[in-house]
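New here. Your pick:
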Amino acid sequence: MNHQFSEKRNKEVEKSHLKMAVFNEPAILVNLGSLYQPNIDPRSMYEITKSLLKVNGKRAKKIRLVCAAYHGFIKEVYIVSGWSKPHFWSSYSFDGEPAPLELREKYVGRSVASYWEWGSQAPIKFASYVIKGKERKS
């Protein structure tokens, strides 16, 4: 994606009537990139999300939600049930399941484009969240 197209797309998203995701709990956003397919089955999306998400232990323990994103929009939300650390990795991987309908309706389809700047290579972003009117970092 070239810079001009990306910048134009982000401005269109900001100006559109689509709602930005506002998190009320610690969350991680995972950009699925070219691994996403429009007709992907739920299990494959979970496995791809899980394979891309590796975090350190301190940050992992705070995270409740994992959001799979594509082109700046949330495609699926998972509730974290635990974190595991394979002996050959220095980072943790999440275990989870699709979020309840209430959370899916709150987040799926919402924009998270503002978390990724043009040229960002990182597939993972820690979402800011708001509790009692105060913004916090995941």
In short: The chain has one domain: 3-21+42-137. The longest strand covers residues 73-84. Residues 3-21+42-137 form one domain. Confidence is low (pLDDT under 50) at residues 1-6.
